[in-house]
Amino acid sequence: MDEQSRLKVAMQKSGRLTDFSTDLLVRCGLKFSRGKDQLVAFGENMPLDLLFVRDDDIPDLVEEDVCDLGLVGLNVVAEKSLELAAKGHPTRFEIVRALEFGRCRLSIAVPENFSYDGVRSLAGKRIATTYPYLLGKFLTDNGIDAEIVTLSGAVEIAPRLGRADAICDLVSTGSTLLANRLREVEKVLESHAVLIRTPVALPASKGEWVERLLMRIDGVQQVRESKYIMLHAPRSALPAIRKLLPGSESPTIIPLEGHPDRVAVHAVCRENVFWETLESLKAAGASALLVLPVEKMLA
Ligand code: PRP
Ligand code: ZN
Question: Which H helix or E strand runs over 105?
Fold first, then answer.
């Protein structure tokens, strides 16, 4: 297969999304090897190559058709879209999937000694951020006039350096804020990873691989919480038991040899199965309960 027909997927070089992004593609069946510090990894069993870049560059790479797909935080995508809109350009990439990793939030935080009493307290203050457009929108939406200090990094030390009174930055565990004696006071955006794609029509062979990948991603995301549950029960308990099976549409009911009044029930539960659920099932008459992880799923 020639260079042009290989899918190019941009992902974060090193950071909070890197391991989850490669893990997702591995679960989708991709085999690749990446040398240390290597910026490109070639898929060995799919016509798909990975480009490891700075997360902030991913929307541009997809916009400019250097890459066909990108795995990136919604925070980066939302900031880029606002920036493009402000400059009068329509957004040219499309979000095709919300992914379940990379959860964090863009928040405003203030130093411990800042007496904060609601969003009004930010009026007239300097707020340091690498997300000037998202912060600007938040301030406008709240009718607050404040100065946005746009930095390229190390936002969390800006108050200590006297460059700002508050910051607006990503928070996930909160340890960066804690280490810098900052307190989270407003949430600007809830974020998680997303898959973006170029809006240009792809050649058929590439387009087909995008569709296959999307289907596999859906399968991977579905099975993460899914469990296969097996149990025995008296026929009369079936209505009660079906109500208790979390997120399962149509369980398989199998007669038990030599026990006309008893059946085996097999079901895929699309939600986690907790001990409490098993206890309720048992109380409803179920026995021989078995819960198995689901490895792959294709609807
Ligand atoms: C963010 C943010 C903080 C840190 C917060 O940076 O700028 O430094 O993560 O996470 P915590 O609450 O778990 O301490 P990130 O790693 O996303 O890098 P980037 O903003 O430079 O891409
Ligand atoms: Zn970044």
Answer: strand 104-111
DSSP 3-state percent helix, strand, coil across the chain (nearest 5): 35, 30, 35
**For the CA of 16, the nearest atom of ligand 1:** 16
Domain total of the chain: 3
**Residue 298 lies inside a defined structural domain of this protein:** no
Q: Which residues of 100-121 are buried (b: 16+ CB within 10 A; e: fewer)?
A: ebbebbbbbbbbeebebeebeb
Sequence-distant (6+) residues with CB within 8 A of 247 are 269, 270, 271
Check residue 3 and give its pLDDT.
62
The whole-angstrom separation of Cα 268 and Cα 250 is: 8
Q: What separation in Å is there between the alpha carbon of 65 and the centre of ligand 2?
A: 20
Residue 76, Cβ density class (10 Å: 0-12 exposed, 13-18 middle, ≥19 buried): buried
228 DSSP β-pair partners: 268, 292
Q: What residues in the chain have per-residue pLDDT under 50?
A: none
Instruction: Look up the domain containing 83 and give its range.
Output: 3-102+193-222
Q: Is residue 299 part of a domain?
A: no
Q: Whose CA is nearest to atom 9 of ligand 1?
A: 170
Q: Is the dihedral of CA 7, 12, 13, 18 positive or negative?
A: negative
The pLDDT value given to residue 2: 63
CA distance 18 to 243: 40
Report the distance separating Cα 287 and Cα 30, nearest Å.
Answer: 40
| Angle separating helix axes 74-86 and 132-141, nearest 10 degrees | 80
In the block, tokens 């009044």 appear at 261
Question: Of the ligands numbered here, which is closest to the C-alpha atom of 156?
Answer: 1
